[in-house]
Amino acid sequence: MSAPADYTSDCRARVAFEVLANRWDSVVVFTIGAYGPMRPAVLLTRIGGISPKALNEALRRLEYNGLVERRPFRETPPRVDYALTEAGDALLEPMRMMGHWATRYADAVDAAQERFEARRRSPQPTSSASLVKASNPPV
């Protein structure tokens, strides 16, 4: 078990969260992990809901972070596919664990967010000190 000091602002454990912090990056990694190397057009179809631009940006980030590799083929027309690297493949198990956590706690997180937002929207009760100030303006 890690000591609390191991999770400071510059700790290496944060790398895993930072490389998948973008909305689509984990989805792309998980999809390639589930189906194997594939072309961007196939990824678009398998993922659904992602724009070509967002997919391209995710693939570039993942390549930059060493989680996927771009594999060009010398064909006409040119073809490119993307595969997980060893580092990308190693992230699949922790991602599955996060998925199990989300399945178990997503409703609790949603409920907490709703309570928080309701508290923010409701008018704050006025304290008696501010009422006294309002009724006795400074002279």
Describe the structure.
- By secondary structure, this protein is mainly α.
- Helix content is 58%, strand content 9%.
- A two-stranded antiparallel sheet has the order 1-2.
Q: What is the overall shape?
A: elongated
Order of helices and strands: HHHHEEHHH
What structural class do helix, strand and pairing data support?
Answer: mainly alpha
Helix segment tally:
7
In order across it, which strands form the biggest sheet?
A: 1-2
Integer-rounded radius of gyration: 24 Å
Low-confidence stretches are none
Mean pLDDT: 87
Range of helix content? 55-70%
Please render the helix and strand layout as text.
Layout: H1 14-19, H2 25-35, H3 40-47, H4 52-64, E1 68-73, E2 79-84, H5 86-90, H6 92-121, H7 128-135
Antiparallel strand pairs: 1-2
Brief account:
With 139 residues, the protein is mainly alpha-helical. It has helices at 14-19, 25-35, 40-47, 52-64, 86-90, 92-121, 128-135, and strands at 68-73, 79-84.
Which short descriptors sum up this protein?
139 residues, mainly alpha, two-stranded antiparallel sheet, 7 helices, 58% helix, 9% strand, elongated
